Amino acid sequence: MAYLYEHCADCGRLLGNEWKEVHKWLDACYKEYGQTHRRHRHHAEGIEEVRKMWGDEAALAAKIHIIVDCWGVPSKADYDTGKVNVNGFTPESTEADVVLLLEEI
User: Fold this and answer.
1) pTM score, two decimals?
2) Angle at 92 between CA 91 and CA 94, to 5 degrees
3) Which of 19, 23, 43, 80 sits CB 3.0–4.6 Å from 7 for a disulfide?
4) 65 CA to centre of own chain
5) 55 torsion bin: left (phi>0), alpha (psi -120 to 50), beta (else)
6) What whole-number distance in Å separates Cα of residue 7 and Cα of residue 2?
7) Coil vs helix vs strand at 80
């Protein structure tokens, strides 16, 4: 899990904009749900919610955030079905996946 400043730095480097508001929105459920907060916004559908609120570049910032935290981009259903664990990882997830996915951005 990355801290807010790390998410901002990643987006600043990759997009030229930190998108602090996006990162705060994605992690806003942490106070209420703790580690299980990711199931609420750390998924493909959460990226689309961000797109509706702030546009395409913000959606890309959300995707970067989720890739860094979950080592991929799960769907809402992936959490419900157990395809991913509470952290959004599949059993096959590795940190190397993060590098490859971020290189595609």
Assistant:
1) 0.94
2) 110
3) 23
4) 4
5) left
6) 6
7) helix
